[in-house]
Design brief:
- The complex is a heterodimer of chains A (113) and B (113).
- Chain A is mostly beta strands and 113 residues long.
- Chain A has strands at residues 3-6, 11-14, 19-21, 23-26, 32-38, 44-50, 56-59, 62-65, 75-77, 86-93, 101-103, 107-112.
- Chain B has no helices and eleven strands.
- In chain B, a hairpin with a 2-residue loop joins β5 (42-50) and β6 (53-57).
- Chain B has strands at 5-7, 10-13, 19-24, 31-38, 42-50, 53-57, 64-68, 74-78, 87-94, 103-104, 108-112.
- In chain B, strands 2, 4, 5, 6, 9, 10 and 11 form a seven-stranded mixed β-sheet that branches.
- The chains are: A mainly beta (113), B mainly beta (113).
- Chains A and B meet through β5, β6 and β11 of A and β4, β5 and β10 of B.
Chain lengths: 113, 113
């Protein structure tokens, strides 16, 4: 079945540091890939997505590139802010009609001023 | 605002009791998903409905059940509650196609005492 593996947290960074959160996946075919973010006390929000190989999703300074050869979708940001402190979830969804989202375990990011 | 509405936001109940969580999906979304988020187990997929029919089942206990009604809202019923059922329960909705994201509600925080 489908699965997603994320780097364990928590990740603690100083403001303006570079962020990478690793995500690899196992799936049949060519799934769509997503990063969701959960701010404290809130539900999950879509951060970015990529639906085919070599696609780059980007939003709010975050980027992730769909790498089929390494089955990866690592999240990066060049300069984090305190307001980026949240839990980040990598997820995939198969292309078959009605496929559910499969999530990684989440990575907590704390950014210090 | 994701367009997905969950009620109630908070629920405190005693062990052995039964509760019902309600979800109204985004307008036009036929697919509804339920997830459980606990501290020790991350985000766990429970069940998916599409246009009133069960589509996929995850790690859902036999004490839990769900349904989707003709107006597309969904209810998650949790019975014989145990302390370990305390968690955040999220509902998400999406269109059926696999390359689109799911939109999450704010969640219902269930505390079993």
């Amino acid at each position: 079945g489908n699965s997603v593996t994320q780097m364990e947290g928590p990740v603690t960074l100083s403001e303006e540091a570079f962020l990478t959160i690793n995500c690899t996946y196992t799936a049949t075919g060519y799934p769509s890939l997503f990063w969701y973010v959960q701010y404290p006390g809130e539900g999950l929000q879509l951060l970015l997505k990529a639906t085919k190989a070599d696609d780059k999703g980007s939003n709010k300074g975050f980027e992730a590139t769909y790498r089929k050869e390494t089955t990866s979708f690592h999240l990066e940001k060049g300069s984090v802010q305190v307001s980026d402190s949240a839990v980040y979830f990598c997820a995939l969804r198969g292309k078959s009609s009605g496929d559910k989202l499969t999530f990684g375990t989440g990575t907590r990011l704390a950014v210090r001023p | 605002d994701s367009g997905v509405t969950q009620t109630p936001k908070h629920l405190i109940t005693a062990t052995g009791q039964r509760v019902t969580l309600r979800c109204s999906p985004r307008s036009g979304d036929l697919s509804v998903y339920w997830y459980q988020q606990s501290l020790d187990q991350g985000l766990q997929f429970l069940i998916q409905y599409y246009n009133g029919e069960e589509r996929a089942k995850g790690n859902i206990l036999e004490r839990f059940s769900a349904q989707q009604f003709p107006d597309l809202h969904s209810e998650l019923n949790l019975s014989s509650l145990e302390l370990g059922d305390s968690a955040l329960y999220f509902c998400a909705s999406s269109v059926l196609q696999g390359d689109t994201e799911a939109f999450f509600g704010q969640g219902t925080r269930l505390t079993v005492v």
